């Protein structure tokens, strides 16, 4: 009787949330644009060097055990003929925006979770949502027709975001699956704890310590047992997630913007710092924010680390102001740790506030400066990133454009 009560605790509402995941995103886009790469094991790596980190293995490469996060030399041990490509961020951003445009024809409630993942909410679209399996198949067909015939997506449908993402991972690549009140226990019985997004090895050990060894155990555990494992409100969140109730339908508040670069060899840090500040400033303005703090960090080749932050008395938005503050911080770094050489340089801005109006400054024409900065941004958007840049940056060709999987809010 107790077991049956647990089972009926699952949300019986029809699935109205859809999770779409582009399979092997960067690698598949490269294969889409270059037919000669199709059907071959390829990877997109941060650098085409033995220690370059793999960002995306193609579907074919994954069959040899090649995974995201591996080094190139490790992947070539598994497949010596592996072809390695460096990222083309502009191409990936374009495809991401094409996906956004297409998906908004099905529902206006489209949330990009990363460069290759989207959440669609159909709760306010009952006529369309009456058969989401049919809608998902139509989306797949239109992606092949309008974006790329070699691009595949895996789609999951469920009553909440968490289970929709879980469903999208059940049958890759090119999968389509639904988790609902009728099949959830059968699906849970086939999953491992670490198959659940958010359950890493540490959380698995926490759950194992109280006798929860699989996903069915996890679902059937009451709140008291879960509190013993998580010792926080996360116990309640997991209780709801596994029962199909929505707990993740929120957007996290933006806390900072930043960029970093790993130096392949020793060089003057100032031009690189300026380029990182230009990129950070552009993202800050694109998100319609001001900042009141600048942070700089240096990681050295001897594995030591130094960082320093500075809180400001006024809002800043101009990349040149970010660079001025970051330069001042850089000058405070002791010379001793820098002798081994800088490995990673990173700059970020924090204490963000939404841009409503510019605070007037008695000693500067803030509005005029803002108009100039925005005009520069428009020129760079039209003619390409860094079309208009400070002269000091002319020597920074080694700082390549990079793209993060999660940094898509400002696209």
What does this protein look like?
The protein has 411 residues and is an alpha+beta fold. The chain folds into three domains: 14-188, Reverse transcriptase/Diguanylate cyclase domain (Alpha-Beta Plaits, 2-Layer Sandwich); 192-251; 257-395, Dna Ligase, domain 1. 38% of the residues lie in helices and 19% in strands. The protein has 17 helices and twelve strands. Strands 5-6-1-7-8 form a five-stranded mixed β-sheet. The radius of gyration is 24 Å and the shape is globular. Residues 1-8 have low confidence and may be disordered.
Query: Do you know the CATH architecture of the largest domain?
Result: 2-Layer Sandwich
Instruction: Count the E strands.
Output: 12
Name the strands of the widest sheet in spatial order. 5-6-1-7-8
Report the order of strands and helices: HEHEEHHEHEEHHEHEHHHHHEHEEHHEH
- Helix fraction by DSSP (H/I, runs of at least 4): 25-40%
CATH superfamily of the largest domain: Reverse transcriptase/Diguanylate cyclase domain
What is the rounded distance between the termini? Answer: 52 Å
Could you report the average pLDDT, rounded to the nearest whole number? 86
Number of domains: 3
Name the quaternary structure.
single chain
In the predicted model, the low-confidence regions spanning at least 5 consecutive residues are 1-8
CATH topology of the largest domain: Alpha-Beta Plaits
């Amino acid at each position: 009787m107790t077991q049956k009560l647990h089972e009926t605790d699952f949300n019986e509402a029809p699935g109205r949330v859809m999770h779409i995941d582009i399979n092997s995103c960067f690698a598949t886009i490269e294969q889409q644009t270059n037919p000669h790469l199709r059907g071959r094991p390829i990877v997109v790596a941060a650098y085409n060097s033995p220690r370059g980190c793999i960002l995306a293995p193609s579907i074919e490469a994954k069959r040899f055990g090649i995974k995201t996060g591996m080094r190139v030399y490790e992947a070539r041990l598994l497949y010596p003929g592996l072809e390695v490509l460096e990222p083309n961020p502009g191409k990936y951003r374009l495809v991401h925006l094409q996906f956004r445009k297409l998906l908004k024809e099905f529902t206006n409630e489209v949330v990009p979770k990363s460069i290759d993942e989207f959440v669609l909410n159909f709760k306010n679209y009952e006529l369309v949502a009456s058969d989401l399996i049919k809608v998902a198949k139509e989306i797949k067909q239109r992606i092949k027709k309008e974006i790329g015939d070699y691009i595949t997506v895996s789609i999951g449908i469920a009553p909440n975001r968490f289970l929709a993402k879980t469903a999208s991972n059940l049958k890759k690549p090119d999968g389509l699956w639904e988790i609902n009140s009728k099949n959830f226990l059968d699906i849970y019985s086939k999953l491992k704890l670490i198959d659940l997004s958010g359950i890493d090895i540490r959380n698995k050990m926490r759950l194992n310590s109280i006798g929860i060894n699989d996903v069915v155990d996890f679902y059937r555990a009451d709140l008291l047992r879960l509190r013993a494992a998580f010792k926080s409100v996360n116990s309640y969140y997991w209780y709801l997630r596994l029962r199909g109730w929505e707990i993740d339908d929120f957007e996290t508040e933006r806390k900072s913007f930043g960029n970093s670069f790993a130096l392949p060899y020793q060089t003057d840090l100032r031009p690189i710092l300026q380029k990182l500040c230009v990129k950070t400033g552009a993202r800050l303005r694109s998100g319609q924010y001001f900042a009141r703090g600048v942070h700089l960090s240096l990681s050295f080749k001897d594995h030591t680390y130094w960082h320093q932050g500075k809180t400001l008395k006024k809002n800043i938005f101009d990349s040149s102001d970010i660079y001025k503050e970051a330069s001042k911080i850089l000058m405070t770094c002791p010379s001793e740790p820098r002798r081994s050489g800088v490995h990673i340089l990173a700059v970020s801005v924090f204490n963000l506030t939404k841009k409503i109006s510019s605070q007037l400054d008695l000693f500067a024409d803030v509005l005029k400066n803002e108009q100039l900065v925005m005009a520069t941004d428009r020129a760079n958007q039209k003619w390409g990133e860094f079309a208009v840049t400070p002269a000091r940056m002319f020597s920074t060709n080694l700082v390549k454009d990079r793209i993060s999987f999660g940094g898509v809010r400002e696209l």
